[in-house]
Amino acid sequence: MKKVLVVSAAMGEGHNATGRALEDAVKRLWPEATVGWLDALDVMGAGVGPLFRWIYVSNVQRTPWLYEFFYRSLWRHRWFATASKRFVGVWCGWRLARKIRTFEPDLVLSTYPLGSAGLDWLRRHHRLDAPTGAWVSDFAPHPFWVYGDLDLNLVMHEQAVPPALKCVPEAKVIVSAPPVRAAFAPGDRMTARQRLGLPPDAFIALVSCGSLGFGDVEDAAKALLKAHPDVVPVVVTGRNEALRRRLQPLADAEPRLHVLGWTDEMPAYTVAADAVVTNAGGATGLEALACGRPVLMHRPIAAHGRANAELMAEAGLAIVCETDRELGDAVRELIASPERWKAMAEAATRHCDGTGRLEDGLLALSKLTPAAREGSAAR
């Protein structure tokens, strides 16, 4: 019986969502497989998870300049990126070692950069023989995502391969199908709208900024309401109850606005939408692409959010809206020019069809046994 270990982290929901998609694919491939999970932040020590989550949210919301400075430093100074990754690798790696030794996995799948750093450290110190891959769930990889000693680094689009190799030129990088659950797939908009009670003829703009619901969500909702009388914004606030409460008076005053908290119906809402409005380009963006929906990146968050937005725009999969006015303009353009909407939707569908299945990446990884690795290195 195959044993598969997922190394993730509860940093919002994105990394765990990627892990769940991989777990589903594992079960489709090997129904009898045992799948174990490790949270890299929990492994790194008591209190590390809450501390790192606080640092991340604080940087994005209060000190984006600091987050941007750290992100740009990783790119500008290779020594800084290498030192940072080695430091985290030692910290996480030696703590992972005992847990991995106990589980004895046949495959290791990482969805979180700090976990990948620990796995890379283990591989370099000959303490990890199982084939190990890192799924880069950001559209644009950054230096902390990519590792030369892991068997595979899996990115989400051909456009992401050059920046991944720029991070680590010797890394083994391939393109994966978007790591989203099978429920996120093209479907019939009218059927989804009927089931969810949404108007059939409106332009549905799904606003989703991750489980933490941070960023300029309220401004996005107001801009969408002003953009066009046919626009119906559906705002998913995730676990951010304070945001939901702030938006409720606006929804009470404007019947077109739908405000949701945490919901298990995200696949249906994504299929029902004409466009998905987000600000980071991680799991939400990948889910939109898997459903063949254009992405509007509204005021992208600092660092990785801005990088994701730029690369998705280059690939023809997103429109970057730096201001509320640009968001309104983008929506009006999609309403007035159905051919633009169709081109973006088809580009998303083509990409997802062209990258095959998540199972393909898992199969490729499973064939990379220690003997196969040594043979490849010898050649």
TrEMBL record:
InterPro entries: Diacylglyc_glucosyltr_N (IPR009695), Glyco_trans_28_C (IPR007235), Glycosyltransf_28_UgtP (IPR050519). Residues 21-179 form the Diacylglycerol glucosyltransferase N-terminal domain. The keyword Glycosyltransferase applies. The keyword Transferase applies. One of its GO terms (cellular component) is membrane. GO terms for molecular function: hexosyltransferase activity. Keywords: Glycosyltransferase, Transferase. Its main location: membrane. Pfam families: Glyco_tran_28_C (PF04101), MGDG_synth (PF06925). SUPFAM superfamilies: UDP-Glycosyltransferase/glycogen phosphorylase. This is Glycosyltransferase. It comes from Amycolatopsis alkalitolerans.
